[in-house]
Amino acid sequence: MFGMMVSFSVFFPILAGAILFMFPEIKARSRNIYTFIVSIVNLAAVLYIAAASGALGDAGISDPVYINLIRFTDKLTLQFAVDGMGVLFSLLVSILWPFSLLYAYDYMEHDNRQGIFFAFFMMTLGAVLGIAYSGDMFSMYVFYEILSLVTFPLVMHEMSRKAMDAGRDYLVYMLGGTAFALVGMVVVMNYGSSLNFTFGGILKAKAYEHEGLLLAVFFITFLGFSVKAAMLPFSRWIIQAAVAPMPVTGLLHAVAVVKAGAFASIRLIYYIYGTDFLKGKWPQYVLIGITALTILYGSAMAVRDLHLKRRLAYSTISNLSYVLFGALLMTPNGMEASLTHLIMHAVTKIGLFFCIGAMMHMNNKVYQYEIDGIGYKMKLTFAAFTICGMSLIGVPQFGGFISKIKLLNAVIDDGGIMAYIGGAAIILSALFTAIYLLTTVIKVFFPANGVRCEGFEDVKEAGIRMQLPIWFAAVMTIVLGFFWRPLVEFINRIVEM
User: Fold this and answer.
1) 134 closest CA partner among 80, 177, 84, 78
2) pLDDT at residue 496 in the model
3) What integer pLDDT is reported at residue 453 of this predicted model?
4) So what's the pLDDT on residue 450?
C-alpha cells in the first residue's frame, strides 16, 4: 500500500496532465475542476506518505523505504525512496500547487492555449515529486530530465519570437546541466558502493586513492545541478524565462525548477559524496566563492532592473545561492539553514510573483516607473506584497528573518574565511533587497507627485482566485516567522540522521 501511494503521487499527475491532451475541446470550467481535484488528491497522497513513513513523528524516519520500479543492472535501478529530505520537498511542492492552480485559472482565462498549458503544468507536479522521492542518483537524473522536458513548453507558451528564443535557451541550459550530472553519475558508479542516497555518502575506500579525480568530478557535477538553481555563470536562463506566463514564472522561480536544482545539489553533497570527503577541499572553497558572488550579483542587478518581473527573477538568483551557500558550509547548522531558507524563500517569493502578476493582469504595467499610486487601487495586493517583501528582506518575525539568521549563525559556527565572505555577501544582499523591494512599496503607496491613482481610475483588485494564493503566501510568511520551531525541528531530524 505504501509503495503504491508513492508511485501514485508521482505518476498520477503526469497521467492526469497527459489525459488533457486527449480532450482539447473540454470546457475551461470542467478542466479547472479536474485539475484542482487531481492536485488535492495528490496532496492527500503526499500527506499520507509523510504520516505513514514516520517523518512527522518525533523519531523521524529511521531508514528510507525503497520502492523498486525497474532494475536495469545491479547499480542502475529506477526506484523511489522516502526519507526526510524527500518528504520535506514533496510537502512544500504539493501544498503550494493547488494555490498556484487557483491563481492560474484567473490569469490564463483569456488564453487560447489553456489546454496545453494545464497539461504540462500538471505533468510538472509529477516530475518534481519524482525528484523528491528518487531513491538514488540515477532515478533523480531521470526525473531531472523529465522536469526539463515538461517545463520547456511552459516557458515558450506564448509562442512569440521572444518566448521561443527563451525556450530554446532554457532547454540548452537544462540539458547541458544534466550532461554534467551524467558524467558525475558514471564516475560515482565506479567509486561508490551503490547509487542509493545514503546520509554521509556512498564512496568506497578506493575513492580516497583517486581523490583529485573525485573532487574534480564533484565540482563538475555540482555545476551541472546548479544550472537549475541559477548559480553563476548559468543564471541567464532564469531572466529569459520571465517571458513565460506568471503562474509558470512563480513555479519556476519559487518552487519547481530552482528548488529542484538546490535539492539535487544538497543530495550530491550530503548523500553521495559526504562531508567527510569534501569538507576543507578546494571545491568547497571555490563553490562558496561563486555562491557569494552570485548572491551579490543577483541582488545588485535586481536594484538596477526596473522591470518588476525581471527584478524578482534576479532576486531569485541571489536567494537560491543562499540555499547553496548554506549547504556548502557542510555542517549540520549549514544544512539546517539551507533547508530552512529553501522553504521560507519558496513561500515568500511565490507570493511576490503573484502580487506583481495580479497587477500586470489587471493593469498590464510591468515597469517600476509606471505604477505611481496604484497601491490605492490595489490595496490588498500591495499590502500582501509589502508583507512578503518584509520576509525577503529579513525583517524580524517574518519567515525570511529566521532562515537568514540561521545562515549567519552557521557562518559564525564555521568560523572560516570563506564562510565569513559568504556571510558578508548575505548582509550586503539584505541591504540591496531592502532597496529594490521598498522602493516599489513607496512607489505604489507614496507617489512622487502626491497624486493617488492617476491613470488608474479603471483599475481594480484581482479576483478571489488570485487573492487567495496571494494571501496564503503572505499569511504563511508571518506564521512561519512566529511559529518556526516545528519546521526547524523537523529539519533537524533530517540533519541528525
Assistant:
1) 80
2) 63
3) 63
4) 66
Q: What pLDDT is stored for residue 129 in this prediction? A: 95
Q: What distance in Å separates the CA atoms of residue 225 and residue 300, rounded to the nearest whole number?
A: 24
CA separation for the pair 444, 462 (Å, rounded): 16
Question: pTM for the complete prediction?
Answer: 0.93
Helices first, then strands: H and E counts in the chain:
19, 2
Query: DSSP secondary structure string, 109-177?
Result: TT-TTHHHHHHHHHHHHHHHHHHHTB-BHHHHHHHHHHHHHHHHHHHTTT-SHHHHHHHHHHHHHHHHH
Q: Residue 459 has what pLDDT? A: 80
The three three-digit cell numbers of residue 434, written as one number: 531592502
**C-alpha cell recorded at residue 179:** 550532461
Work out the burial of residue 459: count CB atoms within 10 Å of its CB; fewer than 13 is exposed, 13-18 middle, 19 or more buried: middle
Give strand pairing partners of 307. 367
Angle between helices 211-226 and 161-191 (to 10 degrees): 150
Cβ neighbours, 10 Å, residue 394: 23
What H or E segment, with its residue span, contains residue 71? strand 65-71
Helix axes 417-445, 399-414, angle to 10 degrees: 160
What is the C-alpha to C-alpha distance for residues 88 and 314, in angstroms, rounded to an integer? 26
- Number of other residues whose CB lies within 10 A of the CB of residue 146: 18
Secondary structure of 236-300 in HEC code, one letter for each residue: HHHHHHHHCCHHHHHHHHHHCHHHHHHHHHHHHHHHHHCHHHHCCCHHHHHHHHHHHHHHHHHHH
**How many angstroms separate the CA atoms of 474 and 223, rounded?**
33
d(CA 239, CA 253): 10
Low-confidence stretches of the chain (pLDDT < 50) are none
- Model pLDDT, residue 200: 87
Count Cβ neighbours within 10 Å for each residue of 464-490 and write b for 16 or more, e otherwise: ebbbebbbbbbebbbebbeebeebbeb
